[in-house]
Amino acid sequence: MLPWRQMIHTQLVEALSNNRMFQKFAQTTDQKISELTGKGAQRANQMQNEMSNPEAMEETKAKVLTFLEEFRKELGEGVNKSFRGKR
Q1: Range of the domain at 77
Q2: Number of domains in the chain
Q3: For residue range 48-73, what is the model confidence (pLDDT) as tens digits?
């Protein structure tokens, strides 16, 4: 890395590591992503089991679409909660 880029990178990392608002954002984001990942893995296992039954394919497809809709909504709410009024 070029010396001036390394200096800027170091300064940026130090500034963010000492910024309480950024730290809170990072912690909240990490927790929410961990929650969603856990829910996603659990739901993926359920869907995999359901998909092994050919009769349940249409029902499973509807559940997948519902899950994706809920996932987008929860993710959006998490982002809004993290950034609400913090510009």
Answers
A1: 25-87
A2: 1
A3: 777 777 777 777 778 888 988 998 89
